[in-house]
Write a structure and sequence with these properties.
single chain; alpha/beta; 8-stranded mixed beta sheet; 3-stranded antiparallel beta sheet; 15 helices; disordered C terminus; binds pyridoxal-5'-phosphate
Length: about 475
Amino acid sequence: LHTNSLDTGFATGLLLRIDRSQSRRVRAQLEGALREEMQRGRLGPGAKLPPTRTLAHELQIARSVVVEAYSQLVAEGYLEAVQGAGTRVRAAASTAASDPCPLTGPSLNAVFTTGLPDPAYFPRKEWLRAYRSVLEDCGPEALGLPDPQGRIELRTALSDHLARVRGIKSSSAQLLICNGISQIITIVGRALRTRGATRVGIEDPCFATHRRLITSCGLQPVPIPVDGDGVMVARIREHRVDAMLVAPAHSYPSGAVLSPARRRELVAWATEHDALIIEDDYDAEFRFDRTPLEALQGLAPANVVYAGSASKVLNPCLRIGWVSAPKWFVQDLIGAKFVEDVANETLGQLALARFIEKGALARHIRRVRPRYRARRDRLLEELTTQASELRPQGAAAGLHLFVPLPEGIREADAIATARADGLRVEGAARHWADPKAGSPAVLVGYGMLNESSVERDVRSLVAAIRGRGRAGFDSPPLNGCSAA
Ligand SMILES: Cc1ncc(COP(=O)(O)O)c(C=O)c1O
């Protein structure tokens, strides 16, 4: 139904499809339809929404349903209710447009959120102990302008730790502390650009943020396809790229592990072409099924920039990442980091150094890895018993599964239905270089899985994938957030 508000000064020509025969779901349909209008930019920042009475009249639905839908979208941050001026699209809501189905919404159940460790597992006591002790001990020199390369205490602790657990060959002088892998990609990209690089290979699919970061450095990202053995290294040779960004231990989002043959092939390509491999080792601490694969860096230290992060193993709120660079590139990165934000703050670095030195990081990993493995097993068990048609992938490591959708199921429909049913689930589309060309899949995180409700939560997810909305409630998929 096209709303007909041309003469009222409100957003006009809204295409809101509401199926009134599904009376229990009208509100969810209306929310979905309005969200879609905002995500597609047809309702831009500041646009005024029709008064609830007008919209209810036009759509022939109860006014209370419109009031509830508006309130939910206000709670999600899409809309704002301005005293005396009605309801408008919030200025910041336009940023949601880059994700056709953003993960906002405090009311969504977060059990399947991807990429986040369980905040309940954050080792608060041990972190506090480490933080308190460094604050008590550190000399006046620590309370000044920080070193752009990062604290030597942390670089020393990390170089031992990384040599032991990831086979990294580098000294503390080659390590640099950054604000997470995201910043590492930015500073490596800027430093490469300064050296004249123009094109960087990226996995396809890859973490969408990384593609944006590469572009923001003035570099052209060149997508290289990923299959079950990881990135298809032979295809890199078809392009003239100066560097290749890759997550060999657990490609994101597909979860593919780079096969031994391809690891060798990738290193051979980099050495032959004097190119750089940017190794994203974001979740290597959580490898479940095999003995940990060493990082690529150990195979070719002169050609690999290795990036690790505290974001999965501890928590992304810390904003601490580490990069080990070949000797020839270290000063470039220190310069780029300084230009970016001067340096990481000191006390968190000292606390992490102490945390590692005291064995607390190793203890933490020993404690949480079996718990995440148990969550992964539980999720796999439920998914495969409740929906034998699903073939989850990427289970060897990390905190999420990649679940390709069976033929004929549209990703955006499954995601919209899951979210309308209150589940925070993400699709794979935005991680492909061309979202329309990628095969449909959902990403199901288990970092925050709730063991006591997993059966019910998976039932809702499976129902959404099958296009039936809330488990047991037989209705067609929503129109609200369907694929373009
Ligand atoms: C593939 C991948 N790499 C790296 C990161 C970590 O980023 P950061 O260290 O900036 O938090 C993430 C986080 O979600 C990720 O998914």
